[in-house]
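Posting here for the record, re: magnesium ion.
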Amino acid sequence: MERIFLKDKYFVPYIPYERIEKAIDEVAERINHDFRHFNGVPIVLCVLNGSILFTGELMKRLNFPCEFSSVRLSSYEGTLSTGITRKVLGLTSSIKGRTIIVVEDIVDTGKTITDLYALLRDAGAEEVKICTMLLKPDVYKKDLKLDYVAMEIENRFIVGFGLDYDQLGRNSKDIYILDKQASMKHYLIFGPPGAGKGTQAALLVERFGLRHVSTGDLLRREIAAGTPLGLQAKTLIDKGELVPDSVVEGMIASELEANPDVKGFIFDGFPRTTAQAEHLDALLAERGARIDAVLSLAIPDETVYERIRHRAEVENRVDDTKPEIIRNRIDNYHAKTEPVIAYYKGKGVYKEVDGLGTIDEVFNKLCALM
Ligand code: AP5
Ligand code: MG
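Prediction output follows.
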């Protein structure tokens, strides 16, 4: 089973058709067992549109006389005697005095099914049994007994086998789940050395629950651990030169792999070249994701010097110590990193704020953009 793309989102395989079939076999067997001595003809009531495939598959397996009917629930409107603000639409058979087997695709909070149950009883149904293909037990909060549940699932957005995303995906015979990676947010915090990328990223991470990925911090960790990569990087960083694209690209790929459950990422100090930006886009595209926004901090070179000089008194970064190294970092920024701005402007995701002002002032401006 491959990943599928519907409208603007990627979905990954969740329940293969073979498992769905098996679950339907089992639930049909239980219904057959319960109705084996039933005197009369129940109506199998398909709740459109989602349960169309499930109802078809289920009915093939029922071995007692039954009728078929379908129904739809209106969206909320007006107030009926039941106090329920919905209406049953398109009910073709009279249900007075009849036994109904309602067939639903999915029950989550239970609002729809409890409304429908009440409306059918109100319309004179003698007995209403509920059969649902899927139940989200974590969010089902009603007391109504669900007589037949084919499968239980976690509280995730799914499509396929009758269920849709914006009317698409109903015809898929397998069930898919929204690709988490595709729904993650991916931000860049961008700017020259000392612009406040690390400072602001730390605040944004706290506010928005994202994962902060700073290639500078990752490289300094490698250096501290004395790894071969760290040793190679140290000679370049200490001179204010960039490390090779392939090194940081590998680090970013590992970070994405290692954090499948976060809400999103904020990349700090990456990408620093147009080649890195192209690589990141390709990496995200493989996951059905993209850069949502580039948050750029604009500050003049003089402020860069001031801030880095100030930081050198507090932190112990070799590349902060000598004016010529700071100069080289700034030169590299203008020569190699600034072109990345045009790249993201072309994609319509570039947003710039004035990086001067207090940390709080800058933070508020960034929050407004997010
Ligand atoms: P990296 O660690 O990314 O360094 P940088 O880009 O030079 O940026 P800094 O971390 O120095 O500054 P910042 O913008 O995070 O500012 P901060 O918040 O600390 O990279 C280091 C090296 O690693 C590179 O030179 C390169 O060799 C290598 N490297 C990294 N990524 C790479 C890549 N993708 N490709 C190739 N090589 C790569 O703030 C600075 C100071 O200002 C702090 O003291 C802070 O407290 C203060 N401050 C912040 N905001 C304000 C404010 N609003 N008002 C007053 N003070 C403020
Ligand atoms: Mg930093």
